[in-house]
Amino acid sequence: MGARSVSPHHCPGPFMLFAPQVVSGSRHEPGYCAFYDECGRNPSVGGSLIPPIVPCLNYSPARVLGPEHYQELKKVCPMLDRGEGQTTACCSVKQLKSLERSLMMSKALLNRCPSCADNFGHFHCISTCSPNQSVTINVTRTANITSQGTVREAVVAYQAYLSTSFADKAFDSCKSVRIPSTGGLAIGTMCGRYGSALCTPQRWYDFQGDSSNGLAPLDIDFRLIPEGVTGAVPAGIVPYNGTALGCNEKTPTGGEVCSCQDCQASCPVLPPPPALPAPFTIGGVDGYLVICATLLGFLILAFLLIHPSEVTCIDRNSLVAQEFLGSWFQAWGTLIASHPFKVLLASAVVVGAFATGLMYIELTTDPVQLWSAPDSRARKEKDMHDKYFDPFFRTNQLILTAPGRPSYIYDSLIFGKQNFSGIISKDLILELLKLQTRIQFWSDDLNRTASLKDVCFAPLNPSNPSLTDCAVNSLPQYFQNSVDNINKKVNMTKLGVTKEVDWKDHFIYCVNSPLSFKDITDLKMSCMADYGAPVFPFLAVGGYENDSYTNAEALILTFSLNNYPRENVKFNIAMEWEQRFLDILKEYQMSPGNPFTFAYMAERSLEDEINRTTAEDIPIFMISYAVIFVYISVALGEYTSFSRILVDSKFLVGLGGILVVGCSVLASMGFYAWIGIPSSLIILQVVPFLVLAVGADNIFIFVLEYQRDARRPNEKREEQIGRVLGNVAPSMLLCSVSESVCFFLGALSTMPAVRSFALYAALAVVLDFVLQMTAFVALLSLDCKRQDRNRCEVVCCITVKTPAPSKPNEGFLLPIMRKYYAPVLLHPVTRVIVMVVFITMLMSSIYLMLHVTVGLDQELAMPKGSYMLEYFKYLYAYFEVGVPTYFVTTKGFDFSKVMGMNAVCSSVGCDPFSLTQKIQYASEYPQRSYLAVPANSWVDDFIDWLNPGSGCCRLYTEGPDEGKFCNASESSKRCGKCMEKPDNGVLRPNLTSGAVLSATRFMAYHTALTTSREFTAALKTARELAHNITLTMRKINDTPPDFEVFPYTVTYVFYEQYLTIVSEGVFIISLCLLPTFVVCCLLLGMDVRSGTLNLLTIIMITVDTVGVMTLWGIDYNAVALINLVTAVGISVEFVSHMTRSFALSIQPTHIERAKEATATMGSAVFAGVAMTNLPGIVVLAFAKAQLIQIFFFRLNLVITLLGLAHGLIFLPVLLSYFGTFVSQAKGQLRELSSNSLPVYDNMTFENQ
């Protein structure tokens, strides 16, 4: 029974003649009955779920019950038992059996709580069987009914009087009883239009007395009378004021107290969740800000007060290392330059051999494989879930609004005046129904026309589904997707008023009672979807408040498809269906007759949009590379006179440098394709950019050093190239080894995308260095020979008569930096300002770094203008709950034992700290647990199915099938109950074999999650809850110690990385920083001081980058981590060359050495790293993809500018204060430089 208003007047049926009449002058005396025995069917009630048998009007004394009669009363109405031979009643055995059937159907929802079920039946027993019946009820309407030729006066309506104290307590005992299968409240299906939120004791009883609900055989007008009020009570009537049980009380027949989930009073007293930790403060101010400010002051004070002493030492280890590396590279460069064609051919063969592996390249586009490691916890849990329950179904969704449609008032006969929003209108519902049936297409895989039924998720008929078996959730499903049902209307009379009821009445009822198989209107339509499941209102409409579904601002249409493995042919059909779905919606959105404003998505949409925008932005990357190529080609040239432009230009050298970078990337990709390590789109975008930045710097250093060098007397061109290479190659080796080791160590990351990027980048850097030492040296050798012969580039047959200048060309940048920039930068006042500013930047960035946002909101993965951005906006605006989440149990738990069932269920007799009960506790704090709807429980459903009151579980009692399961379609005569109801109400099956299941799951719903931070927090809290449940369930006897409960939903694999990405990022970047220190020390001959300053500057660049990320709204995530690893590599280029140049300078003071390094190496770094990167980065600002704009344009711009600032501003000043000292050994080696290899054969700063 549910809840609805009384209808005292009903029209006679067309084939039943009866004379309804109002009864007056009723007598009310203790010990007397108002009616007795059964007269037949109520002619005013049709389509009832049970036969509407009504009693005969019979004012007479209560009867003393015989033995059989007494036993029946004791079973149905134990509260009237006064002992055998002493009990009187006003009901016959037939009435008791009819009452039992009527109560059984309603109690099926309430039996989880014995005291509630007892209270529910209590007053119906009083009004039907009490020996003082006439004192409690007042018959208001009778009808003459002819049965078997006899005309008798039957009661078809009466008033029932009960005290508000009894009614309130009975209602309180039932108001929290849940339906485990839906997570909703039972009272919601027993209060009609009001639902659980607006249900009151009066409305609850009104529905019980409404004959139109299909359960009440006659109309009962329940009058709830407050104590002491007599004016509204007829003479002789005494409102019933018996004892109603509290839900935390046992029943007189031994029924246990209700469970915590069904009764708040039964819950153990739990402390509220601990308060969230307060922000860290010191004296009411942000504690981190105070600490950073204190450290800033300390560092600045220490810098101003402490100066390093000029300690002299002999760096023989450093010089031995430099001499060895320099002489080796000199010999190598001379050899390569002497055989350029052989070297180029050999290089091409090696690169070609590696690149052939590209035939086997595997490009990973699946986001799960890209961002979730196969051995990660979330991935293992996903694999286990998919193994036992199949992959999470594919969701295809449409959210529709009609913002221009006005709302309207509907005056319902049953529900009163209701406001309907403009979107809830018949024409739009029919339009939606028409739209959802349009999708079909020709399938080459099936060789026939394919439709939804070929790929849909059909839970009740998965093997051979029809269209009506497909899980489609939408508002039209309340009408079984039937146009006839939507158009259906009928006249209905209630309380003497006749009105038309139509789809609006059915809709109001169904959104409040979605589990109903029959509404309370005369439409008598089901609310269940045509595929056999309920459609909960939050799946059909959105944008409402406080369960006011008629005011919803959006309609929701969801198609669920099977998530086939990618190798299954039906996966292709599902993808085709989804593409057709998207195409139809795009066409419909542009059609002039479209009445909706809507957003949509398919399961494939995210991957499609990412791939689409990547493909569309490839030209942007190509333009970026082209800009870099043009710059390199122009900047490398020596422009001494207009007539020699084509001779002195380095177009082919620049092109060769670009080809070296491209070949190194292709060879790296080919090698990893050979050994089966997949690539990804992010590798195609980032690795060439990174290697180009690294390689261009080396090219500039090498070429500029060559252009500034003068060939010595009797020195061959090949020997000069070898000598120049010997000068600069150790620096190039230092950077390349540092970067490659950094990236190889970065491959220790658990994230597949980061790991594969690090591997590809590391090998590409190594190959780039190798090709620069071979192919590029050979190419430069050929270009130098061309230039010596005054031949033009490209058209080598043309020679120019203008001779080459006799002096080396310094270009325009070196003189500017030597004459202006270095002196200003290293002025005493400027040095102090620089140190103070950069220390302040560091401490500010440390503070900002602690506040960087972790995560990647999914809309950022979409390009600007994508239809998915509109979908996300609609999703966040109109959805009331989030994704479903499952609490999955692993193998080992015995569900057949009573203790096992009690540890899971939530009905009477269950553990107050059971699995489902703990989830219920958590859902009461949705802001902390991120759970909106508690978990349903198949164990509770199984217990309810066994309940004899439900009539579901039956066994054959005779014949050859005796003891076997009896189907619901079988006659009840041959079948009996599976179990008898126990006295304590705790129904548990007696299973002999252990029910140890491989896996089972319990579904709850998250709150509507909108940001990456919320998704991550939801995962974290769900895991904490599951772990707590696991520890409790392991305490059950014979449960293995490896048994586990884990949460799973489709988003967890993407957001798990954010639980550990901070610590993992620190670990990976620390691993990357380590080799920059170690390699610098080793290659500079154990120069620990230079290595330390080198490391400090790179750390500052990295920290400042994260600080600027916070200011510029760049979130920290896996893509940002890849860029930060890249930042370490690029920082090496900005820093290490300068550090080595300073360390090997023989100028007498720190200032002079810093000036020399800034002018000579700083100009090469500026031209080779900064100016190579910046033009290409600026082009990326025009990319469509937000990911590229944010994580490639913004972040790379920040990295380059900070690297430039630290490398050319901060590092020279830092070295001028704390750099290594000049040693006597360096001076000795300088004296020998005229006959052997120079340490670094630059002219002294003063002589330049």
From TrEMBL:
The keyword Glycoprotein applies. The chain crosses the membrane at residues 287-306, 343-361, 618-639, 651-675, 681-704, 724-751, 757-782, 824-850, 1065-1086, 1093-1112, 1118-1136, 1157-1183, 1195-1218. It catalyses: cholesterol(in) = cholesterol(out). InterPro entries: HMGCR/SNAP/NPC1-like_SSD (IPR053958), NPC1_MLD (IPR053956), NPC1_N (IPR032190), SSD (IPR000731). The keyword Nucleus does not apply. It is found in: Endomembrane system. Keywords: Cholesterol metabolism, Disulfide bond, Glycoprotein, Lipid metabolism, Membrane, Signal, Steroid metabolism, Sterol metabolism, Transmembrane, Transmembrane helix, Transport. GO terms for cellular component: endomembrane system; plasma membrane. It comes from the Eukaryota. GO terms for molecular function: cholesterol binding. Pfam families: NPC1_MLD, NPC1_N, Sterol-sensing. Residues 617-782 form the SSD domain. GO terms for biological process: cholesterol homeostasis; cholesterol metabolic process; cholesterol transport; intestinal cholesterol absorption. It is a multi-pass membrane protein. Its main location: membrane. Belongs to the patched family. This is SSD domain-containing protein. It comes from Esox lucius (Northern pike).
